[in-house]
Amino acid sequence: MGAAHSASEEVRELEGKTGFSSDQIEQLHRRFKQLSGDQPTIRKENFNNVPDLELNPIRSKIVRAFFDNRNLRKGPSGLADEINFEDFLTIMSYFRPIDTTMDEEQVELSRKEKLRFLFHMYDSDSDGRITLEEYRNVVEELLSGNPHIEKESARSIADGAMMEAASVCMGQMEPDQVYEGITFEDFLKIWQGIDIETKMHVRFLNMEAMALCH
């Protein structure tokens, strides 16, 4: 009786922290146990057997995001060696769809959190800026599966995308002006009006969040 009471208390606590319902927590716990092989923690190698990730060109960045201390809300930088179920729920909560019961302020906060998670995927050195090199690396990785695009073309595309982003944030740039990179506030401006809510969600039975990070 005591153990059952303790377990239900724990679920209620997790509901409050993550916004997931008890049913969703139960389904995610089953997925966690599948990934961990019934162990109490997950390590990076546990993601090797996720089919949706196998062919994803930014697979390493998606997996890294699960262990990023910034996403785990455990610090401004660094990576965890392993994560427990509560950590796993914290990460999955970024993919939680917008709830119809949310007010405008809660919707805006949810959107901001999703974009912060995405920003951290680009900002690989945790310096609070996305540099041209970081942005180019991601674009090149995304284009790496396309045999019709040469490396130089991928670089040009990345450079063009970065200059466009910079112009959104800073207005028209002079030819000799150096842009140091995108801050999170800049990132919010760039994504203004783009529907991130429907792109970052999770279907709880098959953990589609993995597939949606293409």
Précis, in short:
The chain is mainly α and 214 residues long. Helix content is 54%, strand content 3%. Residues 110-145 form the EF-hand domain.
Strand content: under 5%
How would you spell out the order of helices and strands?
HHEHHEHHHHHH
What is the CATH topology classification name of the largest domain? Recoverin, domain 1
- Tally of contiguous helical segments: 10
Distance between the termini: 45 Å
CATH architecture annotation name of the largest domain: Orthogonal Bundle
CATH C-level of the largest domain: Mainly Alpha
Low-confidence stretches: 202-214
Mean pLDDT: 79
Q: What gyration radius follows from the Cα positions, in whole Å?
A: 19 Å
**Strands of the largest sheet, in order across it?**
1-2
* Large-scale geometry: globular
Class from secondary-structure proportions: mainly alpha
Main sheet record:
2 strands, antiparallel
Number of strands: 2
How much helix is in the residues?
40-55%
Explain what this protein looks like in three dimensions.
Belongs to the calcineurin regulatory subunit family. CHP subfamily. It is a lipid-anchor. This is Calcineurin B homologous protein 3. Keywords: Calcium, Cell membrane, Cell projection, Cytoplasm, Differentiation, Lipoprotein, Membrane, Metal-binding, Myristate, Nucleus, Protein kinase inhibitor. InterPro entries: CHP3, EF-hand-dom_pair, EF_Hand_1_Ca_BS, EF_hand_dom. This protein is mainly α. It folds into two domains: 12-93, EF-hand (Recoverin, domain 1), CATH 1.10.238.10; 101-194, Recoverin, domain 1. It has helices at residues 2-18, 22-36, 51-54, 59-67, 85-92, 104-122, 132-143, 151-170, 184-190, 196-199, and strands at residues 41-43, 82-84. It has a two-stranded antiparallel sheet. The longest helix has 20 residues, at 151-170. The model is unreliable at 202-214 (pLDDT under 50).
